[in-house]
Design goal:
Number of strands: 28
Strand order of the largest sheet: 1-28-27-26
CATH architecture: 7 Propeller
Largest sheet: 4 strands, antiparallel
Oligomer: single chain
Low-confidence stretches: 2-16
Helix content: under 10%
Shape: globular
Radius of gyration: 18 Å
CATH class: Mainly Beta
CATH superfamily: YVTN repeat-like/Quinoprotein amine dehydrogenase
Strand content: 35-45%
Number of domains: 1
């Protein structure tokens, strides 16, 4: 689903929010990416190699932890919005361009972005691909609902080629009117540790599990509506997960926009709201710190060390994309080429 750019506004802590203590608050270091494009997605391979992607066909890469970034534009793609990126190392990466019809495309590089191969072009005007994720060389892409189904793509060669994927039971999951994914941060799709594919939906605010053994949709208590629902979903382990989103049409509202699960996604309960108004665009667990999660939005960034029970404000800048490494180092990205390194 298409998202809108919001301006940063002053933040007010909501009741129940807390301030971070000096001994455990993460540090935020602003870096220069070499572009002024809006960066919507970021993928941290490790503490040194990070890729980001965004509007105007833009990508940027660092191999020294963000001390220096090299930005570029995919040839012939300067009208596209790269709303998701996944990288395997300093040379191999996949970009997803999101948009209606043939604006949805996938690209692959094996030489650090010096050249790109277009590996998929959407030919269905009703489809709008939102997010990708990988587990090893196997990856998936999801589109907004079209013709009564959620179109899915799969690759088994690290993104060099893609084909349609119709997991068992997926065709019986009737989408709500306008249900799809928010292509805000590239985090509306995640792969569970058991290999199943989960998407958080806009419109229906459902957490949907797809696998070759069966597909099931689970309701969540997150606000839902035409421009409301889940924008981001993540799992910390086989049982614990978190989803967040909100209402894009109510940028200054404090709504139920975070939910957590402790049974692998079967049931979801309301968690606390982050201390910024509006919708959460992306979130990610910090693997090195149990129960720690970071959320980003156009109204700021926040973190929780108790799986969303309480939150502390991290930054007031405008952020869309987010990714963390296993060691607890992460990057958050946003408009005007903004990117910041977050260290716990």
């Amino acid at each position: 689903m298409k998202t809108h750019r919001w301006m940063v506004a002053a933040l007010t802590l909501v009741p129940g929010a807390r301030l971070p203590s000096a001994d455990r608050a993460p540090t935020v270091e602003q870096q220069s990416t070499g572009t002024t494009a809006r960066l919507q997605a970021v993928w941290a391979v490790d503490d040194r190699i990070v890729w980001a992607s965004g509007t105007r066909g833009t990508f940027s890469r660092t191999t020294d932890g963000g001390k220096t970034w090299r930005a570029g534009t995919v040839p012939g793609a300067d009208s596209l919005e790269f709303r998701d990126v996944h990288a395997f190392d300093a040379r191999r990466a996949v970009l997803l361009a999101a948009g209606p019809g043939d604006k949805s495309r996938l690209y692959y590089t094996a030489d650090g972005g010096d050249s790109w191969t277009q590996t998929f072009v959407n030919q269905d005007k009703a489809r709008f691909y939102d997010c990708i994720d990988f587990q090893g060389q196997t990856g998936y892409a999801v589109s907004d609902a079209a013709a009564g189904i959620f179109p899915l793509l799969r690759t088994t060669d690290g993104g060099k080629s893609w084909s349609a994927w119709t997991p068992a039971g997926s065709e019986s999951l009737t989408p709500a009117d306008g249900e799809g994914g928010f292509a805000a941060s590239g985090t509306c799709l995640t792969i569970h540790s058991d290999g199943s594919v989960w998407i958080g939906t806009a419109g229906g605010a459902r957490a949907i599990r797809f696998s070759d053994q069966g597909s099931t949709a689970f309701p969540t208590p997150i606000v839902r509506g035409q421009a409301a629902g889940i924008a981001s979903v993540a799992f910390r382990n086989a049982t614990v997960g978190i989803a967040a989103g909100g209402d894009l049409g109510r940028a200054d509202a404090y709504l139920d926009n975070v939910a957590v699960t402790e049974d692998g996604g079967k049931t979801w309960t309301v968690a606390a709201r982050p201390p910024f108004p509006g919708a959460v665009f992306g979130l990610a667990y910090v693997p090195s710190r149990p129960a720690t999660v970071v959320a980003v939005s156009p109204k700021g960034a926040a973190w929780s060390d108790d799986n969303g029970k309480t939150w502390a404000l991290l930054d007031t800048n405008d952020y869309w994309g987010i990714s963390f490494t296993r060691s607890g180092v992460g990057w958050i990205a946003g408009p005007r080429g903004r990117i910041a390194k977050v260290t716990f």
